[in-house]
Write the structure tokens for this entry.
Amino acid sequence: MASTEVHPPRESEELGHHPSPKKYVWVAIILAIVTAAEVAIYYIPGIDAFLIPGLIVFAVLKFVMVALYFMHLKFDSKLFRRLFVTGIVLAFVVFTIVLLTFFLRPEAAGISG
Amino acid sequence: MATAALQPRRTIFARPTATTGWYSWLTTVDHKKIGIMYGVTAFVFFLLGGLEALAIRAQLAVPDGEVLNADVYNQFFTMHGITMIFLVVMPMGVALFNYFVPLMIGARDVAFPRLNALSYWIFLFGGIFIYSSFFLGGAPDGGWFGYAPLNRDLPSHGMDFYAVGLQVLGVASLAGAVNFIVTILNMRAPGMTLMRMPVFVWMTLVVSFLLLFAMPVIAVALFQLMFDRLFDTTFFNVAAGGDPLLWQHLFWLFGHPEVYILILPAMGIVSEVLPTFSRKPIFGYAAVVFAGAAIGFMGWGVWAHHMFAAGLGPVANSAFALSTMFIAVPTGVKIFNWIGTLWGGSLRFPTAMKFSIGFIAMFIIGGLSGVTHAIVPHDAQQTDTYYVVAHFHYVLFGGALFGIMSGLYYWWPKIFGHRLSEKLGSLNFWLWFIGFNLTFGPMHIVGLQGMPRRVYTYPDGMGWNLWNMMETVGAFIIALATLVFLFNVAVSRRKGRNEAGSDPWDARTLEWATSSPPPEYNFAEIPIVEHRDDFWHKKYFVGPGRTAEPVFSGGAVDHADDEETEPHIHMPSPSYFPLIAAFGMLVSAYAVIFALPAVAIGLLITTLGFFGWVFEPGTAE
Amino acid sequence: MATNDTALTPPAHEEHHTSTGLDNTKMAMWAFLGSECLFFGSLISTYLLYRSRAGSGPTPGEIYDIPFTSVSSFVLLMSSLTMVLALAAIQRGDERGLRTWLLATAFLGMTFIGGQVYEFTTFYEEGLALSKSPFGSAFFMATGFHGAHVTVGILMLLALVGMSMAGRLTVDGARKVELIGLYWHFVDIVWIVIFTVVYLVPTE
């Protein structure tokens, strides 16, 4: 990130760094399949213990694919990825802690989580 | 409408061209003018917040005081907090970021000049909006922290102004944060690597990231409060299952990074002032920078230390107690490095230096009382008492405000072309120092003796009378000192007095390499940076043994006589659309509280403002 | 943004040179999206806290219509595809294709919003209101603010279509489309999270 020179902005038209429309369609097809799978496993009886992990895995998969391909993060400067990931990680960590303080709160004064 | 923009300038989209006169201030996108507007506005709010403080101290001078009744007292202490935090210390920091960050990195302006203007106008309108509450049914009266469920139940419109007003101000801060992050990362002069930037610029960057991630959290909390009050949602309605603790978490997730937002700019200022008046570079530059970043990062892990009495339980309390103790470490690093900067330096003590040294001393005291808060059982006694009031005033007044004053005295000649009087400055400093300690020192004592905060009076016979009287006297001494400052400002303006060239202090950083005040374009030629403290190295050859010998042709380029040879540098044109967009938000704000459907009008004005912004031509030509 | 005539910069050019080589507005958009993670994180966490506090009103399990919401989720996902196809179009200079795909994106977005409106009114008729219970408040707040973001996105997409028709996207247009695209994809990503966390993950 530290540089001793100014650079011209990297043109977003740089070919070879952009997936072709065909690739984008493939990403969309995968997203659609994953969505269908999410809904499908929702209805599988007896899946209980695997449902939530499964849903989370599918959601993360879709999230990552949209970010990396549609939002072009895979091909762009790492700085953009860091800006975005910092927000995600920070939100995830602090809110996990917040929710833990609610759900692991001592049962004083009849407070329920 | 889309084609109108292509026609020549007689449309509403023609960029304004005024460079002088009041209209030029309304339409300016120049970071220097915006910085001045921020500073002046923040100072006016400082006077208002100070008057609130004097009223509070008048009420508390004696037991069973009758100056303010409980309801008015609640409004005053709430507004004092809101004012000092959101309308004084934050915008003062932003004023100095605005004026000096582009200069210090060798840029001509910030990345998004119109967005910069928008932030200022939103700040001004937001502040006016909140203060108008005094005339529209009562000011916010639930404390600056607005705890639930009281915040949703207080009957006047005060807490509506709180929720909506802080929301509006938050937009200004978020926009400013994005602006400064991009400016600092992307607009540095050639050779200005990140590790060659002045510490003040680094602190601006850290503060901007803190704002970027903290403002959205309080935005949600304020929306929840607003909706509870306006639409009867149940976020904090306990009977319906709402949880007041949610408010506390969301508020302090913002609120703790907020206190670092308040103090880091002052730490940055001090890190510039001390080296200049010690004639030494800052001791341990990298450590100071990394410590600042560490404070910003770790500041996200301590918020629940504001909730030790809220019943989170021993596990949560212990975890946050530990993290709070740890955050003292990077702060300590900075303090030792500042002392190391002074050590062995060739010291001078103009007013700016006095305030910076005062900052170190007062901040240490405030930091120490803070460390005592980190110990949960101690905090159980201290919380809600004046001991806490002492702590945060030592760090925010003794810290942030002293730092800001240091910056004002240091940078005044650069901004206005003349120095402030040193005699009056010295008087200002000592009166402020004495008044400040007299006001807040005894609060440690009465606090530990049990005097509760946020209460409009106290009974006789508690042993608190003498201390409270002392504190009130101290507050009026602070007021006197502030008058001295204002007098200094007025008196120093007279032509010919204290006139300053580009580099009156023989300083180290790039802002001193151009004239005082700088021309609109900042530098005739963008400097090429080869060192940290590059300006110093251009002036002095730093030989072996660290002796500095003046370089003949080094030094500042004074543009005062540049009229004939004005370089043709194209600057961003002024625009009035930021003002319009901000005004729309003001309209929406009033509409939310008093006439909900009229929000559409405010939104329309803002949208039109943004359309104009997008469609106006790039330049006035 | 300023340009200057020193020897350092090449002759008159629309571009600006930046310290990182990255475009200012793109950096700004990513910083803003980072902050939006905290915004939606707060809303979603509030939902997670309050989802089991339905009071006397309907519970999540009783009121959600998963098949319906799945379809509208799919619609929004596909709008990300059309968005990226719009960007690809303008990158190869095809402004007609750009407008087509932008309008398709806006249309899919409006379909999604239509679905939201239908869902909200149905829920309301079935007894779930903003003010009914913490679950109701948190649900409508999280999905409502998401919907507001989508709506703003649709307005910006339509504005882009207008700008293209006015010939204002011939120079530097791809950058502007890319910016709005980033925002649009982000709003889609947030829905990916909401769909899973709010609708699919069961509330015992």
Summary: Residues 23-560+568-574 of chain B form a domain with the Cytochrome C Oxidase; Chain A fold (CATH 1.20.210.10). Residues 1-10 of chain B have pLDDT under 50 and may be disordered. Chain B touches chain C through 59 residues (CB under 8 Å). The longest strand of chain B covers residues 540-542.
